[in-house]
Amino acid sequence: MRLFPKFLLSFSLLALVFLLIHYLTKSPTIQSNLALISTNHLLNIPFRYWINNEKVCIEGGILGVFIVTSYFGNVETRSSMRRAFGGDALKKLGLRRVFLLGHAPGDKYTTQHALEEENRRFGDIVQGTFMEAYRNLTYKHVMGLKWAGSYCPNAQFVIKMDDDTVLNMYRLNLLLASLKAFVQKSFIAGYKLDKMKPIRDTQNKWYVTQEEYAAKIYPQFVSGWFYITTPQVSGRLASRANQEKFFWIDDVFITGLLAKKLKVKLFDISQYFAVNSEYLQCCLQDFKRQLDCDFYVGPNGGYIDMFYQFNHNYFTHCVEHKCKRKHSLPNESCVAEKKINLGRGAPLIETYHL
After folding, report:
1. Where does the signal sequence lie (predicted)?
2. Residue 266: how many CB atoms within 10 A of its CB?
């Protein structure tokens, strides 16, 4: 007689479990959350896109697609890039652009709702479900490569850059044209760094433990703040990332360790790079005197509107009115404080006495 109530209790509990499972799998909200727990992984975490714009590259004839790593709250930096070249202006050049973001529910500059409104207006946000954090840049970087390989396979080039990087958009076609011979090959073109050592100083921002990276030297890699590759290489790098041990310094991991495993050739185009943001400030002054600047790429140095100002002034003074070639480079004539912004290494910069 005492077993019968226990049987009923066990049956009731079993029925309750089935009802709970039914509710979990049928509820739209829960279904959305369960989508995180899937076989689709980004490195060592379950992954899905919080916001995706999978139709950005739906048309053919695309020369290149920008994948721009941007912090969640950097609304003004993204605005500067859009003001310089909006979506329609990019399309006329055969280009597309998306900004890569993580999730930051506690950000003090914007909200998830505001970000979704931004995306509704511009249609250029790709957001992953990982949290925004400095040591999560590898997730963001791999997400961008994964997205480009999956949703922009018809583009000739993938242009990866950070949102605090300035690019002379009017010179980009010349840069891409110089790389067309390599389109059918596995390549990454950027500012190549060689024989860089892990920093073992615990007080340094770039401190790397022996457990994180045991070797005494990094493989050759290119700076992650601007490089050019192809959708095919992007897809291969993203796939390979899931097979390797996570490393938080994203450009070393992706353009160094992964590229080496996949035998991707690194091409050095550092001659087009300004490693000092003050050189770009000098270029702005030169534009106004109708003097050209040989630098195509450089850091904004914290000047949020620099992307717009650089391209606007170049167009006004050097496209509408042809600029003269300057006989000296900015690093030979620009009087400014040196600030090395590469962040990933220590390239040699010589001092010039004026």
Report:
1. 1-27
2. 20
